[in-house]
Write a structure and sequence with these properties.
The protein has one domain: Rossmann fold (3-Layer(aba) Sandwich). About 45% of the residues lie in helices and about 20% in strands. The protein has twelve helices and eight strands. The chain has an eight-stranded mixed beta sheet, with helices on both faces. Strand 5 (about 95-100), helix 3 (about 105-115) and strand 6 form a beta-alpha-beta unit. Helix 1 (about 40-50) crosses helix 12 (about 260-274), helix 2 crosses helix 3 (about 105-115) and helix 7 (about 155-170) runs antiparallel to helix 8.
């Protein structure tokens, strides 16, 4: 991608691959599973052109970032500490505009709750506050596949079956499917991605998580097969700061790829207001 610097940064004892672009107020973009920083390719240039310094890392175990071996290495607190350490390593002390999608949104909720002084605002995409995510049977039915992901060996075999048939069907774009498969194919990479589920599922389903004091924009798309609307809409109950909810019509789980102009306008408007 033109104008984007690829850098390796040492933080929290790991080597992180990070995409950097632009100058100005910092924006941190956090991807989920089965993605890498590439999922933000339609946001990075637009945000940089609007005057922001964009930071889009491959998170722990993903893409070209280091891959610790143990399930416990992927606990949510560790994942959040990674991002604070990354900002420190980049010399970023001013408040950051935070954006997270999928598992990146879960990390984002943790960061916004635990480190409100580090973030000017937060945009949660697809996944609501963990305390709302775990409420109700509707979300549990939509998230049935997560229970399969918890079974070592079985999940890996199912995802690789038929030359990654499940992942190809899940992706709405052939190039995105190919990129996800390429990122998950090296030895250990798929297991590392699944370790995000294995390290955190019980905690998310049973433990309370902190309220958020920074302003939060929640985005949910009507074509999302995995997430119920209420778990995002009701996240307002966990936000003490300003709250706004936007329903994105017709987009799948990957709303930032399918509705990039709409999402970019929402992000820039939110950043300008907060």
């Amino acid at each position: 991608m033109d104008g984007i610097e690829s850098r390796t940064v040492q933080a929290n004892g790991l080597s992180f691959h990070v995409a950097l672009a632009g100058h100005g107020a910092p924006v941190l973009l956090l991807h989920g599973f089965p993605d890498t920083h590439r999922v933000w390719r339609r946001q990075i240039a637009a945000l940089a052109a609007a005057g922001y310094r964009v930071i889009a890392p491959d998170q722990r175990g993903c893409g070209e970032t280091a891959m610790p071996p143990r399930v416990a290495d992927y606990a949510l607190a560790q994942l959040a500490d990674d991002m604070i350490a990354l900002l420190d390593a980049l010399g970023i002390a001013e408040p950051v505009r935070l954006v997270g999608h999928d598992w990146g949104a879960v990390v984002g909720w943790q960061l916004a709750a635990a480190h409100p002084q580090r973030f000017a605002s937060y945009v949660a995409m697809s996944v609501g506050h963990p305390d709302e995510y775990r409420r109700g049977i509707g979300q549990k039915l939509r998230g049935w596949y997560t229970f399969v992901f918890l079974i070592p060996g079985l999940a890996e075999r199912l995802l690789r079956a038929g030359r990654w048939t499940a992942l190809r069907k899940l992706s709405t774009d052939a190039d995105d499917a190919a990129a996800r498969i390429a990122a998950l194919s090296p030895p250990g990479r798929l297991r590392a991605g699944l370790n995000w589920y294995r390290a955190n599922a019980w905690n998310i389903l049973t433990q309370p998580h902190g309220e958020v004091a920074v302003p939060v924009l929640g985005l949910w798309s009507t074509g999302d097969f995995a997430l119920a609307e209420y778990q995002m809409r009701n996240s307002r109950r966990r936000v003490r700061g300003a709250w706004r909810y936007e329903r994105i019509e017709g987009a799948s789980h990957w709303l930032q790829l399918e509705r990039p102009d709409h999402i970019n306008r929402l992000l820039l408007d939110w950043f300008a207001r907060h």
